C-alpha cells in the first residue's frame, strides 16, 4: 500500500513538468549557491533538494587564481552536481543559470550575460540590475531595456523584478522565458510581502512565474506554490539556516506539497462555521 502511494506521488510529479524556454524540469525548486558555510555543504544541499537548476553570480565564476593557486572557477563548479538521479528514471542534467548580480544598468548586465554564456555555454540568464547596493531593488527601466536586447541575442531571460504586473506584461511581450518577481526584499527572509501583486501576475501571464527573493521558510514556499506560482528560487533561507542540508530537503517537500495542493484545488473559504459531517437524520 505504501509503495503504491509513493509510486502514485512520483507519477504525479513526473507528469507535471515545468517548462522554461526550450527546457523541461521535473523539480520546481531552484537554488542559489551563495552564503553557504563551505562548498561541500552547498553540494549536499543541491543534491538532496532535487533541484535541476542552480544560479550563481558571474563574479563568483570568473577565472582567477586564489591565494593557494587553485582556480576558483573550477573549485565552485566542481562542487555543483552536473546531474541528478530520479527514482526509476534516467539521470537528468542540473542546469547552470548565471545571474548578472552587481550590474547597475542595462549595458553592464548585457556584458555580464555575454561573458557568462562564454564561460558556461548556456543561454539561460537570470537578469538582475540593482543600482542601489543597500536595498538591492531591481531597476525596472534598465531591466526592460536589457531584457529586450538579450532576447534578441538569443538568451533565455529570467528577469528579477518587483512584483509589478504591468512590467511583467511588458517583459512577456518582448519574449522573456519566465518572470521572477520578488516576494520581499532580497535576502530578507520576510516571506510573501508582495502576495497580492504576485497573485495578479500569476493570473495575468502565460509565462512561468518563479517567485524569487524574500522567501524565508518552507511554509512561504508552499504558500507561493498554492497561489499558482510555477516555482521558487531559494538561496538565503537555506544557506543561512542552522542545517542547510536538512533545510534544503524541507523546501523540496514544501514545494511539492504546495504544487500538489494547487493542482488538487483548495477548498473554499468562508466566515460561517460548517460541520464536515452534516447532522441530518443523526438522531432519526
UniProtKB/TrEMBL annotation:
Gene3D superfamilies assigned to the protein according to its UniProt record, in alphabetical order: Aldolase class I
BP term (GO), one: thiamine diphosphate biosynthetic process
Residues of the active site: 126
Cited Pfam families: ThiG (PF05690)
Any GO molecular function: thiazole synthase activity
Keywords for this protein: Cytoplasm, Schiff base, Thiamine biosynthesis, Transferase
Gene Ontology CC terms: cytoplasm
Cellular localisation: Cytoplasm
Transmembrane segments: none
SUPFAM superfamilies: ThiG-like
Family: Belongs to the ThiG family.
Function of the molecule: Catalyzes the rearrangement of 1-deoxy-D-xylulose 5-phosphate (DXP) to produce the thiazole phosphate moiety of thiamine. Sulfur is provided by the thiocarboxylate moiety of the carrier protein ThiS. In vitro, sulfur can be provided by H(2)S.
Protein's UniProt name: Thiazole synthase
Organism annotation: Arachidicoccus rhizosphaerae
